TrEMBL record:
This is Xylanolytic transcriptional activator regulatory domain-containing protein. The keyword Nucleus applies. GO terms for biological process: DNA-templated transcription; nitrogen catabolite activation of transcription from RNA polymerase II promoter. Residues 144-216 form the Xylanolytic transcriptional activator regulatory domain. It comes from Penicillium nordicum. Pfam families: Fungal_trans (PF04082). InterPro entries: Carb_Metab_Trans_Reg (IPR050797), XnlR_reg_dom (IPR007219). One of its GO terms (molecular function) is zinc ion binding. Keywords: Nucleus. GO terms for cellular component: nucleus.
């Protein structure tokens, strides 16, 4: 194997002072705002985020934070504070106080990060971006996509894409490099699915092994912590499966670097992954049990989103979507519909603890994708007396509205913004479970001037094929 060699380059642009004044000043502003509850927000980050999305070795970070805080990147600390704010209702102490101005804090954190990107980018910048992009509420698709691209570029420049197992560095640093690389990969691939943009990390360009539970947990870790770590490890391997499917979706060149896969080949990839799981994680995946484990609900939604993507790719490969006017869908279309319904059922089953737990922000798009697929399926069945897809889509909207109102669940926002008005305009508000759509005079879509034509085009033609408007 060829050795990995690094060059030494200055971190700061020529003529720029070493003092990162802007990032440090932004950190000071945030800390003054959060004082005297700073430590409570720090605890929330490790309880809610780091347990499920292990950015730091908690013990090492806390030692550095309390003993040598000035040596930690100010941008990193700002991002950590901002990321923790969405969980403030989970703390009895914070819940009894004032409501934090989350947008103000995020603006300060973003300015600190942008300053560090210009002045002295490094590993801390990659970590800051990971925390930033996983922050909620997510408000900027282009901003997050650009940040992920920057993280990928920095990671490659820092050699994070290479296996450090045989390097002459400490075990702690090896584990950190592996963990940070896979967090970047997770963001890249799930943002690719959510935003409809090609992958920036390709499987042939890195050799970093998957993290292990032992890499993520200290010697005295509890059963609770090890269970959360095992779910994260499964998320990384599922993300690798997602990459195989996204390579298929975004393959537009006639000279593809990846072998073409059939519908059965694609199915086998997911089946092999399911069989590779430990029994407890496999039960979570197949049956949806043990969702109270930290990160389990987020992981379950990730699995269902990958499964829906698989079904839609298979539907496209079979040309089954050509039957746009048939009231009886093909078996492959029914498989895809069932996958979308499974996402709805998961959302309906979530309780307060799970809703207030960790969620990757881009999962909001997975919920929207499932709902839009159900709406398209239902509109093609408008002559059917029992239009299950439309009923399930309405159930999804009702559930998301309840979650938003009762628990301030921002993951619901994307779907509500894209689908709730459409559901209402289609006259579905008063539908009963056994309502006869054909007898009720279901609205003629061609004559309904209240519906945006572009929305109807997406709904009616979004499944004709990957090259003709496949909507992720």
């Amino acid at each position: 194997m060829r050795p990995v060699r690094f060059d030494v380059v200055p971190r700061r642009p020529l003529g720029v002072a070493t003092v990162q004044s802007l990032a440090a000043s932004k950190c000071e502003v945030i800390e003054k705002y959060l004082d005297p509850d700073i430590e409570e927000y720090l605890n929330l980050f490790f309880q809610k985020v780091n347990t499920c999305f292990p950015v730091f070795d908690e013990a090492s970070f806390r030692d550095a934070y309390f003993l040598n805080k000035e040596k930690i990147s100010s941008a990193l600390i700002c991002s950590l504070y901002a990321n923790s704010l969405v969980y403030w209702r989970s703390s009895p102490k914070l819940r009894s106080g004032r409501t934090p101005d989350i947008r103000f804090i995020w603006n300060q954190a973003n300015e600190a990060l942008n300053s560090e990107l210009f002045l002295s980018p490094g590993l801390s910048t990659v970590i800051s971006i990971i925390i930033n992009v996983s922050g909620r509420p997510s408000t900027s698709m282009f901003g997050n996509g650009g940040m992920v691209g920057t993280a990928v570029a920095l990671s490659n420049a820092l050699g994070l894409n290479r296996d450090p197992s045989s390097w002459d560095i400490s075990p702690l640093e090896k584990a950190l490099r592996i963990r940070i690389w896979w967090l970047v990969v997770i963001h890249d691939r799930w943002c690719s699915l959510a935003y409809g943009t090609p992958l920036q990390v390709h499987r042939a360009q890195y050799d970093v092994p998957f993290p292990s539970v032992d890499d993520l947990c200290s010697t005295g870790a509890s059963t609770y912590q090890r269970a959360a770590a095992s779910i994260f490890v499964a998320l990384t391997t599922l993300t690798d499966v997602l990459a195989r499917y996204l390579e298929h979706v975004y393959c537009v060149s006639k000279h593809a670097s990846y072998a073409e896969m059939s519908a059965m080949d694609l199915e086998q990839v997911l089946s092999d992954w399911e069989e590779s799981l430990a029994d407890d994680v496999r039960r979570l995946v197949i049956r949806g049990t043990n969702l109270d484990v930290p990160g389990a609900a987020n992981f379950r939604l990730a699995y269902l989103a990958v499964k829906l993507l698989l079904r839609r790719i298979q539907l496209d490969l079979s040309n089954g979507s050509a039957q746009t006017e048939e009231s009886t869908p093909s078996p492959l279309h029914m498989h895809a519909q069932r996958s979308a319904e499974d996402i709805t059922h998961l959302i309906q089953e979530l309780d307060e603890t799970q809703l207030q737990g960790f969620w990757i922000p881009v999962h909001a798009s997975s919920i929207t994708s499932a709902t839009m697929f159900l709406l398209r399926s239902g509109l093609r069945m408008k002559g059917n007396n029992r239009n299950t897809p439309l009923h399930v889509a309405k159930d999804m909207i009702n559930t998301l509205q309840a979650h938003r109102q009762r628990f301030d669940w921002d993951i619901a926002d994307n779907c509500l913004a894209h689908c709730s008005d459409l559901v209402e305009k289609l006259g579905m508000d008063n539908l009963q479970t056994e309502y006869d759509l054909s007898a009720s005079g279901f609205p003629d879509l061609a004559e309904n001037d209240n519906i945006d034509p572009s929305v109807l085009e997406d709904l009616l033609f979004g499944t004709r094929g990957l090259s003709e408007g496949f909507v992720l």
